[in-house]
Amino acid sequence: IDVKNTAKDFEEITEKQKSIQQEIDEKYLEKVKLKKEMDKAISNYTKCVKQYNNLCSKERDILIERQKKEQKLNIINRDYVFDNKLLKGFNDLNSKLQKLIEENQGWIENEWNELEKKWSKWNSQE
Question: What domain of life is recorded for the organism (predicted)?
């Protein structure tokens, strides 16, 4: 048996083992570091998704509220147009009634004057 060669081979194997162990240790540390980064990234992603969903929910609520307000405005505008038409109709009716009242008053005055004339004639004939 060659003791020198065996001792040399043993030393080479030991060096290879140390070298491999060092690489394993480095890769283990890198793996742990990357896992932490990945966990943090997943956590950040999860938070971001929750925030995004909350914002989308708020936007939906705002859109629903906006639709309700638009519907109310449409109803108010429709009522406003109707009220204005109704008011115009009442104003027209009021004007016509005022004109009729004036015409009626004129007719009453004319008839009264005629009656006074007739009364004067009747009175003078007696």
Answer: Eukaryota
Spatial distance between the Cα atoms of 124 and 103, rounded to a whole number of angstroms: 31
pLDDT tens digits along 67-83: 999 999 999 999 999 99
Residue 1 has a pLDDT of 64
In this prediction the pTM is 0.55
Name the token pair of 34.
């990357």
Residue 35 lies in a domain: yes
Structural domains counted in the chain: 1
CA-based angle 60:62:65, to the nearest 5?
Answer: 110
Q: Which DSSP letter does residue 81 get?
A: H
